[in-house]
Specification:
globular; alpha+beta; Beta Polymerase, domain 2
């Protein structure tokens, strides 16, 4: 993927040094619409004087806007906060670290990617089960007769994406967020059409009709697969990357990079 210079400009304008900045969201998941915004995610490094001083520091930087016609949503966290999230059952931040859509990288980003594998646990399954539940409830709500419009494709694709990512992680110990790549293994025949609708339509593209009975059965079936994969998973109960993350953070602070 060629990185749009408008994305690079947002990275260049960041107020703090960045360890990395990658693209998340629909572009990472394999189903961006032509009008999808770009979700830039990453980790920055606060200078030592802001960490040890009395003045509150900006642990999180959030900026959203349209830049030369491109909608960009940027969120980065200070390294300490980001590393702490990596040690929780937060698949979202690990997807960001390991995203192949890289806008900015450093040698420390390479270290972080190596450490990320030691932050994976079987309990990341709960992250994906919870995310799938939220998106399924949203899709169900949009399918109600009293809803103002037709159900959107987006929440349904998110349901399938997170469930397949979770199952794949539990079975292979690997983080894969791209739904197209995931379906090369799962071969769900209905996904290519849903993806095509989203990619060739708009961010709010809808389904002419939703076979709720079918999707409900698939949702429950894949949830059960993820729960079963969790039970059989060989990933550890707890992350083992804490010491390595601590060492990296100390080096970053002392070097002031």
């Amino acid at each position: 993927m060629t990185i749009d210079p408008r994305l690079q400009q947002q990275v260049n304008n960041h107020p703090y040094p960045l360890l990395f900045a990658t693209i998340s969201g629909a572009h990472l998941y394999g189903f961006p619409s032509p009008d999808s915004d770009f979700d830039l995610r990453g980790a920055h490094l606060l200078p030592l004087e802001e960490v040890v001083g009395l003045n509150p520091s900006l642990e999180t930087i959030e900026k959203s806007g349209i830049h030369d016609g491109l909608e960009i949503d940027l969120v980065t966290h200070d390294a300490k906060k980001f590393f702490e999230m990596m040690l929780k059952k937060n698949g979202y931040v690990l997807e960001q670290v390991l995203s192949p859509l890289i806008v900015h990288t450093t040698p420390e980003h390479d270290e972080l990617k190596a450490i990320a594998t030691d932050c994976l646990t079987k309990h990341h399954a709960h992250h994906y089960l919870g995310f799938a539940t939220t998106q399924w409830k949203l899709f169900q709500k949009e399918c109600q007769p009293n809803h103002a419009g037709l159900p959107r494709v987006k929440p349904l694709l998110y349901v399938y994406r997170v469930l397949l990512t979770g199952i794949h992680l539990m079975r292979t110990d690997e983080v894969e967020a791209n739904l197209i790549h995931l379906n090369e293994t799962f071969k769900l025949p209905y996904l290519p059409d849903l993806i095509d609708r989203k990619v060739s339509g708009t961010e709010k593209v809808t389904l002419d009709q939703a076979d709720m009975s079918f999707h409900s059965q698939e949702y429950e079936r894949l949830r059960s697969e993820l729960e079963e994969a969790f039970e059989q998973c060989t990933l550890p109960e707890q992350p083992s990357g804490s010491a390595a993350l601590n060492d990296l953070l100390v080096r970053l602070r002392l070097d002031g990079k």
